[in-house]
């Protein structure tokens, strides 16, 4: 289980368009927002990532980088980049399901065939997760879902980030001793 203020696993994956995303080498002033999405088959993911694409400059202005990650292969990940018109948002691919489950605590689902937009779901894929990781690679914020619905809004995260910066607000949920 990931614990706030504790080191997260590293994450190193290829990016659509070339290059590599490596969390331990990010070097952003205030951290990185990592959005794990279900894959090209998910229309809700496309809408969600479009919002992140539009707000990535806002995160960047606050010293925060963004990346979207899925277990899709390169072709499907490139399809998502095209679908959302990504120019600001980096999209990484080839997340292994053991890394999704063991390292990041994401839930795994099985295919139900074609989705409402006519794209076949992979046999297995991870459900959504949103993480903000500090420059020291410790967990600041996490939200993990079992379903594609009801995700945190990026505009609220930008506002929360402004509050945290202004007030030097620490990551919460760090208590791990006996209850």
Plain-language structure description:
The chain is of the alpha/beta class. The chain has a single domain, classed as 3-Layer(aba) Sandwich (Glutaredoxin). 28% of the residues lie in helices and 21% in strands. The strands form three sheets. It has a five-stranded mixed β-sheet. A two-stranded antiparallel sheet has the order 1-2. The longest helix is centred in the N-terminal third of the chain and has 19 residues. It is globular and about 45 Å long. It starts with 11 loop residues before the first strand and ends in a 12-residue tail after the last helix. The mean pLDDT is 97.
Sum up the structure in keywords.
single chain; 179 residues; alpha/beta; Glutaredoxin; five-stranded mixed beta sheet; two-stranded antiparallel ribbon; 4 helices; 28% helix; globular
Give a topology summary:
Elements: E1 12-14, E2 20-22, E3 31-36, H1 43-61, E4 64-69, H2 74-84, E5 90-92, H3 97-103, E6 108-110, E7 124-126, E8 129-133, E9 139-144, H4 154-167
Parallel strand pairs: 3-4, 4-5
Antiparallel strand pairs: 1-2, 3-8, 6-7, 8-9
């Amino acid at each position: 289980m990931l614990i706030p203020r504790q080191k997260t696993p590293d994450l190193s994956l290829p990016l659509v368009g070339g290059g590599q995303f490596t969390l331990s080498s990010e070097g952003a002033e205030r951290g990185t927002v990592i959005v794990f999405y279900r894959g090209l088959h998910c229309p809700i993911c496309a809408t969600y990532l479009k919002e992140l694409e539009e707000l990535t400059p806002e995160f960047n202005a606050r010293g925060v980088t963004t990346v979207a990650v899925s277990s899709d292969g390169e072709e499907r990940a490139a399809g998502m980049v095209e679908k959302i018109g990504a120019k600001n948002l980096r999209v990484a691919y080839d997340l292994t399901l053991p890394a999704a489950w063991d390292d990041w605590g994401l839930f795994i689902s099985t295919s139900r065939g074609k989705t409402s937009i006519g794209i076949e779901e992979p046999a297995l894929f991870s459900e959504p997760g949103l993480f903000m990781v500090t420059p020291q690679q410790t967990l600041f914020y996490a939200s993990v879902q079992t379903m594609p619905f009801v995700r945190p809004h990026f505009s609220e995260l930008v506002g929360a980030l402004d509050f945290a910066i202004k007030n030097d607000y620490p990551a919460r949920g760090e208590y791990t001793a006996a209850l």
